[in-house]
Amino acid sequence: MVHDKKTHILVISQCFYPEPFRINDICEEWVQRGYGVTVITGIPNYPEGKFYDGYGLKQRRKENWNEINIIRLPLIPRGHNSLGLVLNYLSFPVSEYIWKCTTNIKPDYIFMFETSPMTQCMLGVWLKKKLRKKGINIPLYAYIQDLWPENVEIVTGIHSPLIIKPIDKMVRYIYRNCDAIFATSPSFVGEIVKRGADKEKVHYWPQYAEEFYYPRERTPNDALPVDDTALKIIFTGNIGYAQGLDILPKTAAILKERGCYVHFYIVGDGRYREKFVEEIHQNNVEDMFFLTGRKPAAEIPDLLACADVAFFSFMDTELFAKTIPAKLQSYMACGMPILASARGESVRIIDEAGCGLHSDIGDSEGLTSKIIEMKNMESQKLEDMSKNARAYYLKHFEKKMLMDKIDEYLLHC
Known about the structure:
Blueprint: E1 8-12, H1 23-32, E2 36-42, E3 62-65, E4 68-73, H2 82-102, E5 109-114, H3 122-133, E6 140-144, H4 150-156, H5 161-177, E7 180-183, H6 186-194, E8 202-204, E9 231-236, H7 247-257, E10 262-267, H8 273-282, E11 289-293, H9 300-304, E12 309-313, H10 318-321, H11 326-333, E13 338-341, H12 345-353, E14 356-359, H13 364-375, H14 379-396, H15 399-412
Parallel strand pairs: 1-2, 1-5, 2-4, 5-6, 6-7, 7-8, 9-10, 9-12, 10-11, 12-13, 13-14
Antiparallel strand pairs: 3-4
């Protein structure tokens, strides 16, 4: 579908290009479909916690990328501790409020891409109310990637009602003022409705993988060692505390003790990386891990092709049982057999697709057994898992199908 260029979507997302988030691709697709797109975002600092080279409080605060107008509001970078994260979460909405008071922008739609922090979504509500006072009714949409206040409690360890109750009140306020809410898993839909959102306006809209995610031929890659005798397991993405990667060094130690030869490829960066490296050394499994650092998203499919199995895991919380991680769609789009330390929604998809094995969160013995099972598997069974992953992706998560679905909401709002 191609639309009048005058149709203008204002996107609110604290993280945006060059930070590696799927909203980048969504905005590019909207431009291709004829929409005008403006993005209100922060100064890029995810996941390293410091401003990217070439960006800052006085550098590149406005730019145009692939016909997308980007306005970068000042914020405090995430840093590497909880205080830095809290300041990051609070500073952006302060900048949003000041910008709201001074802007004359009048979009046709407001679309909020909600990863943490959810405080960023206040701008959408403020702007909607400001324009309504002028007699202009702008549809407000939210795409929920993280559930608050649950995510706050997990990331910060704060459980005090004095902090959590006001956050919960803010979340309900945002939901109440949205015209439509999209959620990345069926479980998220249920949780959002529990917080008072009208059931009729909450919709399951899973994430897709960018079009460059597709199965590749295995070719040598300088970033990863070549060893056909080892089972090669790859993890890609943010190395954060929420990912529960502490299970891997423990599992590697058990595998080493049992004489099972495995390589773990870790592609990414994040706040947990330093501690993760310490745990690798403490378990004396340095020879089993290969950390490449962060790589451009477009290079990930070629790196996946160098491995036999793709892995993801979570911390053991009820929130992550309700979550479908974006990397699962990326893995499946590339036809990767899946290995997971997970439960809930992710396990449901793996089982429905018949594309991998899983153990319970934090169960290093269970994960060890699954790895040994995969290492001893006939190549045909792994190949079947690969085909199943790709087929399930095309049926349930294909990009054009999902973008057409969101188009229907924009056209008939």
